[in-house]
Amino acid sequence: MDKYSLMVPNFIPAQEYFDPKHGETCIGCGVSLAARLAGKALGKALAGAVCERRKGADLFGVKTDAAFMRVKKGRAELIICFDDEPSNALQDALVKKLPAVAVAEGVAYVATACPSYPFDLMEKVKRAMEADGSAYIHILAPCPSAWKYPTENTVKVGFKAVESLAFPLYEAASGFYNLTNTTLKPRSVEEYIRAQGRFEKATAAQVKSAAATVEKEYKKLLEKVQPE
């Protein structure tokens, strides 16, 4: 049983704002789950959102094939990227450039999120809408069909991404970083990689290199976090 399976239904608002009919999705789709949670946090503001997915779209000067949503907030806007890693490249699954680029571009509020952590995701969407200025949220959205894992494992794969530190959860407001989830005993990066059939041919050397990349990137993130 997933760690949130008992409490989530009791605390997440029942009202739905996201209509899955707006796009074709597979069973267990991480993008739909993330969009549904974001919609609950946005409420009526979702009605004016513009959703887009096109090959080579430009976000902060970086090309992406991921789906994203633009939401007006006064004179600024919130951009939510639903990253289902369409390239299926191992390196792209370990290093996320867009959040750091958004910070460098002066975006007032930047955060990472994952639907496996629904409360964290919804709170960040709310904070993004309340932020004075532009905002960007990068959401990891596991995809069972492309990532090749059982449809019922979407939430579990998201847990493994975060708990292996391959996709840490954090926020940066006006350049000041804050971790919103810490894992005292991280899972191995190999466990996360091997949970996905798309990486079944990854060699031991590639997995070892991937673990080293995750460790390096996480150390770089920790250096940016402000001491309490």
Walk me through this protein's architecture.
- The protein is α+β, with helices and mostly antiparallel strands and 228 residues long.
- It has one domain (22-224).
- It is 36% helix and 19% strand.
- It has 9 helices and 9 strands.
- It has helices spanning 8-11, 30-42, 90-94, 98-104, 118-130, 144-147, 154-163, 189-194, 204-224; strands spanning 50-52, 57-59, 62-64, 67-73, 76-83, 109-113, 135-140, 170-173, 176-179.
- The strands form 2 sheets. A 7-stranded mixed sheet has the order 1-4-5-7-6-8-9, with helices on both faces. A two-stranded antiparallel sheet has the order 2-3.
- Helix 2 (30-42) crosses helix 5.
- The termini are far apart.
- Mean pLDDT is 89; it is low at 1-7.
